Amino acid sequence: MPLAERLARRRAERDREETEALAAELKARADRAFAVLTHIATHGHDDGSEPCVSPDPAP
């Protein structure tokens, strides 16, 4: 296998690994934001305000 081809494959693999790592980090941040917003919507803010939605929605 020519050197240029090996280098191109290594670069592509490294780029793929970096992309996957960034995607995992982005998903973790999105999951955390969703959890925080869900908690606020269900339980209200820390200032004692009322919840935005009912914990037991009517059917």
From TrEMBL:
<protein>
    <submittedName>
        <fullName>Uncharacterized protein</fullName>
    </submittedName>
</protein>
